[in-house]
Write a structure and sequence with these properties.
Blueprint: H1 3-22, H2 26-33, H3 38-62, H4 68-79, H5 85-98, H6 103-109, H7 114-145
Helix pairs in contact: 1-2, 1-3, 1-7, 3-7, 4-5, 4-7, 5-6, 5-7
Amino acid sequence: MAATDDARHSKLVALDLIKAYAHTDRRLVRERAEGITGEEGERIASELKVFAAFLSRRVQETGVPWRPADSREAVARTVADLLEPEMEFAVVSAWEAYSVGEYEAARVRAQGDPLVFMHMFAAFSAAIGTAVYGTDELLPTLRLAAELPD
């Protein structure tokens, strides 16, 4: 795949993961994450990090109070019963560190697994995104922000 194809694919997978979490769709979470490793996982996690930052700024603009403790609870609630227990624990543990700026601790807790970061950012984006936009508006808004056609 060319670089632009890789970027588009990464954005689409990232959006599908956010959608899966927003709709509590265990099957879609599993399907979209299946077989992703290494460099591809890092690209997707990077796209998800961009979406998470965009949504964080949007929640700040709305004036809705959103603290690290709120995001930790939201991520834990969002991944509950959608992931295998080991992955769920890794995601919640890594997010606890990441949400308070302990990025190296988050990396250690994730054991360098890009899937942990993918799930972490997707769950956060789904939680905060539905709080700001609602389930119906979230994906169209993110598609527009990512410059992807409907």
